[in-house]
Amino acid sequence: MPELPEVESARRVLADGALHRRIVDVDDHDDYVSRPHAPGELRSALLGRCFTAARRRGKSMWLTTSGSDGDGGPDLGVHLGMSGIVVVAPPDETADLAGDLVGGDYRPDRERFVDHGAYQRFAVTFADGGGVRLLDPRRLSRVRLDPDIEALGPDTLGLSPAAFRAALTRGRRVSTAPVKARLLDQSVIAGVGNLLADEALWRAKINPARAVDSLRRAEIDRLGRSLQGALTDAIDHGGVHTGTVIAFRRAGERCPRCGGPMVSGTVGGRTTWWCAREQRPVAPDQPATG
To answer: Which entry of 270, 277, 280, 281 is annotated as an active-site residue?
Structure first.
């Protein structure tokens, strides 16, 4: 599933190419992707407006719109799901879509995927002849008006060390929670998925099953720096699948840093990989038992 870097890539595509262009048509025929809205409801809400900003918190993305009353129109939430991709066509775009801006570089087949409007689930046409399309072969994406993001924690990207420490350690049951489970909890910090969590914990040399209250402040700060570094690298290089350790999350692989064996288990309900040598289940100054 797309994580924060993939959604940020799509947001930047929309911010670069979809803003301040008047909407003259909307294709919202797919009532599953547009649920709970009936066909035509999104069209009625968006016609004549412009997108004014592309915003994101964690994995949630939305477009703000202009309004005739000075207060702005409804927000349009766009959730990519596991297989969605956004395409922005420039003004006077023809049937040849090779020059389109595309969000979702995590799809290795993206060039074939966008050809000729295949799998179009939602689309907006602008007065200048271009538009925005949401393509999704599996119909796992979602488009809705005024998405609720109140339950989400602070966005992970750019989170300060102090804010990261406070978020990770906040709450009554934190002491027994595995650190990876806390990273994956979107109400704690928003945007971290399974691969990103494994990459950040590997970079920080912290075992994913360690309880949060077993982490020293220096380890939490190191994890925060590792998480920001993993995010920045993933955004720059095309997605979380480009992380240093991701290709080694397989049976029989060795850690790309120290050569120790990569091992797996379930943490926080998710399949998890770590280096058996560098990510031991106890703090470095604690003796191993058993």
So the answer is: 270
180 has catalytic annotation: no
Per-residue pLDDT of the chain (290 residues; tens, 9 = 90+): 689 999 999 999 999 999 999 999 999 999 999 999 999 999 999 999 999 999 999 999 999 999 865 568 999 999 998 888 898 988 876 544 444 566 655 555 566 666 555 688 999 999 999 999 999 888 899 999 999 999 999 999 999 999 999 999 987 666 689 999 999 999 999 999 999 999 999 999 999 999 999 999 999 999 999 999 999 999 999 889 999 999 999 999 999 999 999 999 999 899 999 999 999 987 555 543 32
Name the fold adopted by 4-145: N-terminal domain of MutM-like DNA repair proteins (3.20.190)
- Write down the catalytic residue from 59, 107, 133, 144: 59
Q: In this structure, what token pair is assigned to residue 255? A: 């850690």
User: What fold characterizes domain 161-275?
Assistant: Helicase, Ruva Protein; domain 3 (1.10.8)
Whole-structure pTM value: 0.87
- Considering the candidates 2, 5, 178, 208, report the single residue annotated as catalytic: 2
Residues 93, 104 contacting (CB under 8 angstroms): no
Is position 287 annotated as part of the catalytic site? no
List phi, psi (to 5°) of 121. Answer: -110, -25
CATH 1.10.8.50 in the chain: give the residue spans.
Answer: 161-275
Is 138 a residue of the active site?
no
Q: List Cβ neighbours of 196 (8 Å cut-off, separation of 6 or more).
A: 3, 4, 5, 227, 230, 231, 234, 240, 243
Is 59 noted as a catalytic residue in this protein? yes
CB 216 within 8 A of CB 290: no
